[in-house]
Amino acid sequence: MSKRAVDAVFQALFLLSDVRFLLRETAPGHDLNEAQKARAATTLDKVKRQVAILEEELIR
Amino acid sequence: MKCAVDIESRDVEEMYINIDPIQAGGRLTAEAMRAAIAYGDGYSVCDNCRNPPRLDYIKNPPIAQYHADLAAWLNMDTARVVPGARRGFQAVASTLVEKGDPVILTSLAHYTEFMAVEAAGGIPREIPKDAKNHITPDAAAEKIEAVIREFSKTPPLLFVDHVDYQFGNVHDVAGIAKVAHQYDIPVLVNGAYTVGIMPVDGKALGADFVVGSGHKSMAAPAPSGVLATTNEHAERVFRTTQAKGDVTGRTFGMKEIEMMGCTLMGVTVVGMMASFPRVRERVQHWDTEVAHSQAVVDALLSIEGTKVLSDYPRQHTLTRIDTRESFDTVAQQHKKRGFFLASDMKKRGITGVIPGSTRVWKFNTFGLTEKQIRHVGEAFVEVARENGLNII
């Protein structure tokens, strides 16, 4: 049982939901302002960390 | 991109600004999207269902608390979540209306109110709207008198829409409720276009029942909604089963008949709950939403020949517009006929105008950002200008 992997899946999906919400807020052009770009960058970094945890737990 | 066999992923909200009249208030919050991921399984909220085994007693996730919060938020005494506003109408009508009873609703009432009355065996009688498309207390009084004369009995229930679906006009519910109560008629307020998008105070409205729609106005998955009532009516509408099996002798404890036991057992209730903090907060910004609606209406009115059929200035984000003397004149000559408007708007990243509509149609600006509002207004004017209409 890898609680860490399960948590990472949820966390990544939740973070991607935030990105999805950002796409909605900025539709149709998705022309992000500086604050939105910063928000996107932070969120995507966090997603990468969760994916790394999943690789660690499930593949390596 | 497909999300399953033969099912395309829905990316309407990500790719376009959506001004569809019924979809605006039901768009999920980011929190509800997260909840939908975690609670998609069927009976997902039932992991910790204990005694009594009923949805509104579940403490984890905090569904019991949510019920209490909903009632308090609407300034009512008690609330239940229901599978859509229509099931709230049905529960109340089924409780209060006997076969052959006249039931008052309005000439702007949603069809599901009629169906709830019909299912209960009631006979619908409509309060007429006035020339400004309003339901007034005077008209309500006249109708009640007429119905009492016709049926020799007092109607057991009156439905009134806080904001109607046809014009998006705000009606004098408090005045109508005051009249109804003079005849001891309980009042059900249909808040499908208000609960969750603008402040609603059930007691101030004089409501005996407030019904809201989760998927129309509370940023929740469908089908979801709320039925709230006062202590005076709660025991009757939320009565528990007395049924007993004659062979098995089984009884069913605290299950509520009109709720058919439990109502929203998964993603619907958790979606409502997840959106609730933001919903509670967003109703405080109703003035901004109305100003946004007004900005788009004004842009449309700058196109010569366009008329607004809803109240003006706008008091709601749902608007009925008449473009028979503007966009429809273009449609007469256009190779795409009436489809040109939806098509030209879609090219500009805007959807929700019903394809083919260039005569009388509705749109809803709720939830759009300032930038998106500007884009919508400019797009309408640009389409008009490109098609030879005058901008005034």
UniProtKB/TrEMBL annotation, chain A:
Organism of provenance: Methanoculleus formosensis
Name the UniProt record assigns to this protein = Uncharacterized protein
UniProtKB/TrEMBL annotation, chain B:
The entry's pyridoxal 5'-phosphate-binding residues are: 85-86, 190, 213-215
The transmembrane residues are none
Query: What is one process in the GO biological process aspect for this record?
Result: translation
Top-level enzyme category: transferase
> Per the UniProt record, which EC number(s) apply here?
2.5.1.73
Catalytic activities = O-phospho-L-seryl-tRNA(Cys) + hydrogen sulfide + H(+) = L-cysteinyl-tRNA(Cys) + phosphate
| Listed GO MF terms | Sep-tRNA:Cys-tRNA synthase activity
Q: Which domain of life is it from?
A: Archaea
Q: Which residues carry this modification: N6-(pyridoxal phosphate)lysine?
A: 216
Does this UniProt record's set of keywords contain Magnesium? no
One Pfam family named in its UniProt record:
SepSecS
Its cofactor is: pyridoxal 5'-phosphate
User: What keywords tag this UniProt record?
Assistant: Protein biosynthesis, Pyridoxal phosphate, Transferase
Q: Which InterPro entries match?
A: PyrdxlP-dep_Trfase, PyrdxlP-dep_Trfase_major, PyrdxlP-dep_Trfase_small, Sep_Cys-tRNA_synth_arc, SepSecS/SepCysS
For the keyword Protein transport, the answer is no
The subunit structure is: Homodimer. Interacts with SepRS.
**Alphabetical list of HAMAP family matching this protein:** Sep_Cys_tRNA_synth (MF_01675)
Name the job this protein performs: Converts O-phospho-L-seryl-tRNA(Cys) (Sep-tRNA(Cys)) to L-cysteinyl-tRNA(Cys) (Cys-tRNA(Cys)).
- Family classification: Belongs to the SepCysS family.
Extract the PANTHER family matched here. CYSTEINE DESULFURASE, O-PHOSPHO-L-SERYL-TRNA:CYS-TRNA SYNTHASE
- Spell out the protein name for this chain: O-phospho-L-seryl-tRNA:Cys-tRNA synthase
